Amino acid sequence: MTAVLEVRGITRRFGALVANEDVTLDLRAGEIHAVIGPNGAGKSTLIAQICGGVTPDAGMIRFLGQDITGANTQARARMGLGRTFQISALAMENSVLDNALLGALGASGRVWRLWHPVLKDRALRERAEDALRRVQLIEFSDARVGDLSHGQRRQLEVAMALTLEPKAFILDEPMAGLSAEGTKELTGLLDTLRQEAPILLVEHDMDVVFALADRITVLDYGRVIATGTVDDIRRNPKVQSAYLGEEA
Amino acid sequence: MTRETLLNTLLMALLIGVPLWAWVADEPFTITLATRAVIFALAAVGLNIALGLGGLVSLGHAVYFGIGGYAMGILAYHAQTYTPLMAWPFVIEGTKFMPVIWLVAMVVSAVVAFVIGLLSLRTSGVYFIMITLAFGQMFYFFTISWPRYGGEDGLSIYVRNGFPGLNTLDPIQFFAICLALLCAVLWLNARIVKSPFGLALGAARQVPQRVETVGLDPFRLKLVALVISGTICGLAGALFADLNRFVSPTMFSWQMSGELIVFIILGGLGRVFGPVAGATLFVLLEHLLGGVSDYFLFYVGLLLLLVVLFTPGGIYGILLGRSKS
Amino acid sequence: MSLILIIEQILNGVQFGVMLFLMASGLTLIFGVMGLINLAHGSLYMVGAFAAAGVAASSGSFLLALMAAMAAAAMAGVIMEMIVIRRLYDRDHLEQVLATFALILVFSEGTRFVFGSFPLFLDVPGVLSGPITLPGGIQYPLYRLVLIAVGLSVALGLGLFISKTRVGIQIRAGENDREMIAALGVDIAKLYTLVFALGAALAGLAGALVGAIQSVQIGMGEPILILAFVVIVIGGIGSIRGALIGSLLVGLTDTLGGIFLPELFKFFVAPDVAQTVGSALASMAIYVLMACVLIWRPTGLFGARA
To answer: Which of B214, B220, B222 to mutate to test the interface with A (most CBs of A within 10 A)?
Structure first.
């Protein structure tokens, strides 16, 4: 099985703090690969290095067979890396549809049109509305994002990644702050997404992780302490002491 | 018709109606006042593309206003003295022809905005405010200490520049030219707001990290916004100099940059017609209070303070309620 | 060009620089601690100068005038902070710029109303007037040397105050982490007012000291305000050390640029052209310096990395 995204031995320090040390993992076609670990384990730094924004001190990141270690965020997005943010990053003053259109805009290359109204761009609009339909936000198209509930904003985050028609999803705690009901719905959606593109899922909610993940990588103090299937991880004593132990 | 559209219509009706009345009543000074308001509005609409839509708090937009002014001043000066602007390697003559002057004003402003943007957009927040202010001061002090075109005293142009088919010396005809340009720019602005570019620029102001992760470059979006914005301010500057038949370094002063922002905030940030309302109110106050008291800026200051502290939506916010469209 | 002239100009540059520092240190503290851009800081400078001119005219004492300047500016600062500035801490930069721009208009026109449009004069006190002979036979105005000494003492005092005293430590903590000082039980509102008053008093002192060698008039605060902003942007916002180094850099660049740039151009072009081009470029020199620093380091020499 070929890897869509490969992370090879990346290390990143902030002064004396080692955020990631020799982290290696890959994301294969069709899978959901969860990354878990206690707070401060280096998950956010890992995401930032994969999506752009933080450059590794050492190591390499390959996406679709291409070295993207030095590429900027925009270039990675254009290659098909679709991400969501842990804390919703949405244009609050704009409508839901506007936000979805923004996602579609990046891929379309038609951003430099100054004259043609964006709402009249049929292809763009279809793509945006498709994504909104998938996350069940289509009836809220005209609502202002600022007026949406927290759960709906989480759904819109996912929709914006969808509009890119990405080759891989990087989801940073998509369930953060969701109700049990919301979590269930979004879990169902993510389950269907994996056929379109594999998902690298950073998540705190263990039930979600065990329900969705094909494989799990556990980070602790910036290092990978285990990688394997759900059962491997459940049984791994190192993981139990480092992480699951707290939960039990 | 929404209340905002109604307010826009009323505002434009006022801007057209008052000068027409003044024309009939033979009150040329009132027409000049309205022309002043229209030109300030034009400059503020230009700044609003960078500031309102792009969130770029530029305290140096007087640069483009001044460049427009000096483009007019220098070209007309050479035309009225019958001296070439440049004799080598090829001869460039001055001109008294408005469309050429506008074109030069806009092109030079655009180029300068591009260069300033390239350098200043590397910074953000208060550093951006200060570096734009610094560029403004560079031009201000340069024109003061450069004696070729009048230095501190500025340049006077004896006869207003010409426009084919119109008598620009007639106040109402010059007003009509300025108003037509304002309408064109307002229309352009409204189109930009609704365009893909406008959407992306607005998002770059609110969530730059998101814009990057959909594959767009906030830097380039802001740079283009700054160039469009500067170009419009340049045009406004050329008209302002033509209105006064005079250009001086004060067009480059930082107070000028400050006033342009004031127009926008008085009118209402984030509204296409906000800058028009603000500029009109400012010129009105300047005229009304200036006649009553020598200290009219004191009252402008107080008013501005009240608006900023208590009614962030400006005139539009007061009349329409605070929520934006 | 003689060595004496060069030394004289360097001293002039340092003198200008330390006066800028009095302005810039207050601005940079206010920005660092409260996150506020205060365009009206120049108005406090003007208030100090007018207060000094008024008190000196009626009492004849320069020392009393200086104290009045600091007191008046601090008072004006406290009033300004309590009525207006306090409401701006949580606002964005645009609103801060506008509200304090409005304050400039209010202060300038208010002062014009009270004192009229004509400049006032504040004389250098008799004991400090006249030149003094420095080693090497250089004649230099004593008052300007005193300005340098005062400015450097203030810089030293401020440095000690910030690093050694309890309030100073609270101020530094406030720059790093606002929530932390609240958690430590510091009365933030009081601390903010205090920092503002301190900045205002220094601005007032600068206004009075400079007022004695220039005229005291409406609008005198704005040019120096902009230069002080240039200083703190070069030095890095929030850094006292940055403000000192930035002040000296700006002071020296401005003073020496005016002398040397025309001379420099004389090597390349005709003297009259060199004079014109050189002076024109010299008038822009500090802004070019600032632009270069920001392009090189977008948060100033000693600013926190973004």
So the answer is: B214
- Residue C80's SS3 state is helix
Determine, yes or no, domain membership for C180: yes
User: Is there a domain that residue C126 lies in?
Assistant: yes
Q: Report the domain count for chain C.
A: 1
List the domain range (segments joined by +) for residue A6.
1-72+203-248
Q: Could you read off the pLDDT tens digit of each residue along chain B, which spans 325 residues? A: 688 889 999 999 999 999 999 999 999 999 999 999 999 999 999 999 999 999 999 999 999 999 999 999 999 999 988 888 887 788 888 888 999 999 999 999 999 999 999 989 988 888 899 889 989 999 999 999 888 898 889 999 998 999 999 999 999 999 999 999 999 999 999 999 999 999 999 999 999 999 999 999 999 999 999 999 999 999 999 999 999 999 999 999 999 999 999 999 999 888 889 999 999 999 998 888 877 777 888 888 998 899 888 887 888 888 887 554 4
Q: State pLDDT tens for residues C70-119.
A: 999 999 999 999 999 999 988 888 899 999 999 999 999 999 888 888 88
Boundaries of every domain in chain B: 3-320
B207 and A78 within 8 Å at the Cβ level: the answer is: no
Q: Are strands B246-247 and B155-156 parallel, antiparallel or unpaired?
A: antiparallel
Q: C301 is written with which tokens? A: 């020499």
Q: Are B277 and B320 in contact (CB under 8 A)?
A: no
Number of other residues whose CB lies within 10 A of the CB of residue A1 = 8
Distance CA B79, CA B102 (A): 15
Domain span at C160? 17-219
d(CA B282, CA C126): 48
Structure token pair of residue C172: 């530094």
Residues 126-155 (B) with a CB less than 8 A from some CB of C: 126-127, 129-131, 133-135, 137-138, 141-142, 144-148
Q: Is residue A35 part of a domain?
A: yes
Has residue C214 been placed in a domain? Answer: yes
Structure tokens at B91: 């001869």
Cα(C249)–Cα(C252) distance, integer angstroms:
5
Q: Distance (Å, rounded) from C-alpha A43 to C-alpha A172?
A: 9
| pTM for the whole structure | 0.90
Q: How far A198 CA sits from the closest chain B CA (Å)?
A: 18
ipTM of the complex: 0.89
- Whether A225 is covered by a domain: the verdict is yes
Domains contained in chain A, number = 1
- Best mutation target among B116, B138, B252 (most C Cβ atoms within 10 Å) is B138
Contacts of residue B141, defined as CB under 8 A and 6 or more positions apart, other chains included, come to: C283, C284, C287
Which run of H or E residues covers position B199?
helix B196-206
**How do strand A32-36 and strand A215-220 relate by DSSP bridges?**
parallel
Look at residue C86 and tell me if it is in a domain. Answer: yes
Question: Rounded to an integer, what distance in angstroms lies between the CA atom of residue B114 and that of residue B65?
Answer: 15
d(CA C207, CA C196): 16
CATH number at residue A38: 3.40.50.300
Q: Is residue A179 part of a domain?
A: no
